[in-house]
Structures are given as C-alpha cells and as structure tokens.
Write a structure and sequence with these properties.
Elements lengths: L6 E7 L11 E6 L5 H9 L17 E6 L6 E4 L10 H17 L3 E9 L6 H12 L4 E6 L9 H11 L8 E2 L8 H12 L2
Length: 196
C-alpha cells in the first residue's frame, strides 16, 4: 500500500481568478454523486478532508487543496455536473465556472474525469470528454464504484465503459473507495502529474 497523498484544504472560490498560483494542479471533475470527494479522501487516507454527502450537488464551488510535499502543487475539486434538483440557472453557472477554470487555469496538468463504473458513462460524461478533447485539455478517465459491478460482469463492463469513452481498457483507472481498488495506482499517477 502506497503512502497517502498529503493534502490540506486551502479555500473555496467561485472564480478561477480567486485561486492562488500553483506550480502544478490536478482537478477532479465528474457527474454529481460519482464520488469525487470520496476519492480525494481515499487518496489522502482521511475521511473528512473533502466533504461528502449522500445528497448530490453538495460541491458548488472550486475547492482547492494544497499538496504538502516537495514540489507542492494542488488539487481542485470541481462542482458535479448534471445535478437535476438544482435550478437550470445554477447548473449553467456551474458548467461555465468549470469550463473557464479548465481553459484558463495556469499550470493545470491533468483533469481526472470520474465516471460511475456501475452505471457507465452518461451522455453528460461523453459530452465532457468530447469537450476536453476538442479543447486539448489533458485528462484521464477514472471509473469509480467498480466494486458494485457483479464479478461475472466486470470484464464486460470494463470493455463497454472504455469503448464508450473511446479508450482502451488499460487507459482507464478502475477504482473502488470501499474496497481500496486502484487507489495506489491513482496516488502514483498523482505524484507523477504533480512532480512530487
């Protein structure tokens, strides 16, 4: 088991211009309730660093975490997209905030796009992946909740999910927070991306 990523919460902001400069940054994006905060907590081996909730739409700001390691860097947890109970105006504002952040954040080195491994990529996930490719934003697909797929269907689900994302199976990082699957690989990738 690899050492946890050491993060500390710095601030929540509505605008990318309010974020402090950083030598390198990784962001976490995905549909509401896909497990962004839980994954951040798993990588740090802390239960309460990023606030989790059973209610989708909890994260509504850009939440910045500083890496406490040589080389520094930071991680940003973005609002989830597709939260149906929020007003149309709120959903539009969140998407605009995310797009401005992804296009204009200096030293953004990787966007981790979280996709529900049980449900598979939704149309919103596929739209986001298309947008990232069109705008040349470096990204990695991370499939969450893979433990919820029946063992007899895992291989098929992996092939289907990767194909829909236009990727090879090995290009996707397969994770489960509850079973600690793929967390070490993700920590290693995070250190590589951030240069720590």
């Amino acid at each position: 088991m690899s050492d946890p990523i050491l993060l500390r919460f710095v601030k929540s902001v509505e605008d990318v211009s309010e974020l402090p400069p950083t030598p390198a940054e990784v962001t976490v994006i995905g549909r509401s309730n896909v497990g962004k905060s839980s994954l951040i907590n798993a990588m740090t081996r802390r239960k309460d660093l990023a606030r989790t909730s059973k209610r989708p739409g909890r994260t509504q700001l850009l939440n910045l975490f500083k890496v406490d390691a040589e080389g520094g860097g930071s991680v940003v947890d973005c609002p989830g997209y597709g939260y149906a109970r929020a007003s149309a105006r709120s959903r539009l504002q969140w998407m605009e905030m995310i797009e401005v952040y992804l296009l204009h954040r200096a030293n953004l080195v990787m966007a981790m796009v979280l996709v529900d491994g049980e449900v598979g990529p939704t149309s919103l996930d596929l739209d986001m992946l298309d947008w990232l490719r069109d705008n040349l934003v470096p990204h990695t697909v991370v499939a969450t909740k893979i433990d919820k797929v029946r063992s007899s269907r895992v291989a098929r689900r992996r092939r289907e999910l990767a194909k829909k994302c236009l990727l090879e199976v090995d290009d996707v990082v397969w994770t489960s927070v509850t079973k600690n699957v793929g967390i070490d690989r993700l920590r290693d990738l995070m250190r590589l991306w951030l240069g720590t």
